[in-house]
Specification:
This protein is α/β, with parallel strands linked by helices. The chain has 21 helices and 9 strands. It holds the Pfam family DnaB_C.
Length: 508
């Protein structure tokens, strides 16, 4: 009870020779007294207050003992606790087990129990913050040669995020009735929603109908061979979600009821300005009524007329308030990505994470490259799934497919084509493939000397032009199958294939 004696010295006008960590012993005593008089006071604080949050260790042990007795459906009062603390040396200087009686005798009403608990919790967080700061300083001074400064920064960010989240949400097992209420609420919200969505919108009605939107805590993989349009589709989805969030905000819809989301796009392949140019090209074409679309490569070259430039300027003004963040840091580690996502979650209420693409992420870097590539991919997919659950947001990660697709006559991808690790399929809640048969058919152009074959090829190309498939290869929440989309190559935009709504779906 050294802390109690030190506080008594302060009350008598004595001075301490060192600066004490933040604490409030009076609040701890008042809370414990209220709990010993009426155990219902403990129910007001046990959802967020732990034994280790008490500054005085013996107070923490008293609090923990009370909770244990309550778990056994027993009344926790000084009489019941006395046997546990009769020989406690920490209580000797203040009267032994009789200290419990003094606590109960000086107790006030339980009405303020939660306020006392919050005060104790707040001081505990401040002490933990001091500890993190001291650790950061010591680690920076005595850093091992093989530890980069960026790793220490990432570790410090994780500690700060964990501290900030501590006590914010209930952890551990929960009653089925509570989970059932949450499930029913989600179903009710989807039932009442005009879009019939239970998750974040993709902006594509056909895809929304198939998957119900992007669901919180889900890891979704979007895979395909090069030139299929993976990045284009992911960019479209990211922008559509962010735009819906901005539109809902203007309409006065609260964030928790919005079908959009604040989005962070981790672009490990393209730069932020290239990604922005793609989105700008897409939006500019929606307000441009010229004979030819505004192509992104012509934007880079500056080959624009006055009307096209004005359309781009109007689109840029429209996009300024869209909550879409782009992080184009190359060779990002999974740990650094998690820390940056956590930061955006706290600062901007992040609601969707997109990663382009997961094979460009780095793991912890342990082990040899020859033996650990599969393990590294497994670490990355587990990290992304953990991030989705931790932040309670959907995570959409792009993935490359193996070259085996190119060797088959039917080049539609399958789950077995996922590259480098079976953990991608295992950890993912949903796996989608982008496929454009037009790309492969274009390479099969026969010689014009064989007119019959060339005419047949032209007819097939006309039928395939501007069409794409989003193949749902795995979905934990619904059926697999194929969603038909339209693809505008000039402005890299996927849209609903309105004129082909009658096409039958292909199911595995």
């Amino acid at each position: 009870m050294e802390a109690v004696k030190n506080d008594a010295a302060n009350d008598e006008g004595g001075e301490l020779n060192y600066r004490q960590p933040p604490h409030n012993l009076e609040a701890e005593q008042a809370l414990l007294g209220a709990i010993l008089v009426n155990n219902e006071a403990a129910q007001k604080v046990q959802g967020f207050l732990l034994a280790e949050h008490f500054y005085e260790p013996v107070h923490g042990r008293i609090y923990e003992s009370v909770l244990k007795l309550m778990d056994k459906n027993q009344i926790a009062d000084p009489v019941k606790l006395k046997p546990y603390f009769e020989n406690d040396e920490a209580l000797t200087d203040v009267g032994g087990a009789r200290y419990l009686v003094r606590l109960a005798a000086s107790a006030t009403t339980i009405i303020n129990a939660e306020d006392y608990g919050r005060t104790i919790y707040d001081h505990a967080m401040r002490r933990a913050l001091i500890q993190i700061g001291e650790t950061m300083v010591n680690d920076a001074y005595d850093a091992p040669v093989d530890v980069e400064a960026s790793e220490q920064i990432a570790d410090a960010e994780k500690q700060l995020f964990d501290l900030a989240e501590m006590g914010q949400a209930e952890t551990g097992a929960q009653a089925f009735s509570k989970a059932l209420r949450t499930a029913v609420e989600n179903i009710e919200n989807a039932y009442k929603d005009p879009d019939s969505l239970s998750g974040v919108t993709t902006g594509l009605a056909a895809l929304n109908d198939k998957i119900g939107g992007l669901h919180n805590s889900d890891l979704m993989i979007l895979a395909g061979r090069p030139a299929m349009g993976k990045t284009a589709l992911a960019t479209n989805i990211a922008f559509n979600a962010a735009k819906r969030y901005a539109d809902d905000r203007l309409a006065g819809i609260p964030p928790e009821k919005s079908k959009g989301a604040v989005v962070c796009f981790f672009s490990l392949e393209m730069s932020a300005d290239q990604l922005a140019a793609r989105i700008l090209s897409d939006r500019a074409n929606l307000v441009y009524d010229g004979p030819e679309p505004i192509q992104s490569h012509k934007m880079r070259q500056g080959s624009l007329d006055q009307r096209q430039f004005e359309a781009i300027a109007r689109a840029a003004i429209e996009l300024e308030d869209v909550p879409l963040f782009i992080d184009d840091t190359p060779a990002l580690t999974i740990a650094a990505l998690r820390n940056r996502a956590r930061r955006l979650k706290r600062q901007h209420n992040l609601g969707l994470v997109v990663v382009d693409y997961l094979q460009l992420l780095r793991g912890s870097g342990k082990g040899t490259a020859a033996d650990s590539r599969v393990q590294e991919i497994s670490e990355i997919t587990r990290g992304l799934k953990g991030l989705a659950k931790e932040l309670h947001v959907p995570v959409l990660a792009l993935s490359q497919l193996s070259r085996g697709v190119e060797q088959r006559e039917n080049k539609r991808p399958m789950l077995s084509d996922l590259r480098e690790s079976g953990s991608i399929e295992q950890d993912a809640d949903m796996v989608m493939f982008v496929f454009r048969e037009e790309y492969y058919k274009e390479k099969e152009e026969p010689s014009q000397s064989d007119q019959e074959k060339h005419v047949q090829w032209q007819a097939e190309m006309e039928n395939l032009y501007g069409k794409a498939e989003c193949i749902i290869g795995k979905q934990r929440h619904g059926p697999v199958g194929t969603v038909h989309l339209a693809f505008e190559k000039d402005c890299t935009r996927f849209t609903d294939l309105i004129e082909e709504d009658h096409l039958p779906e292909r199911f595995d």
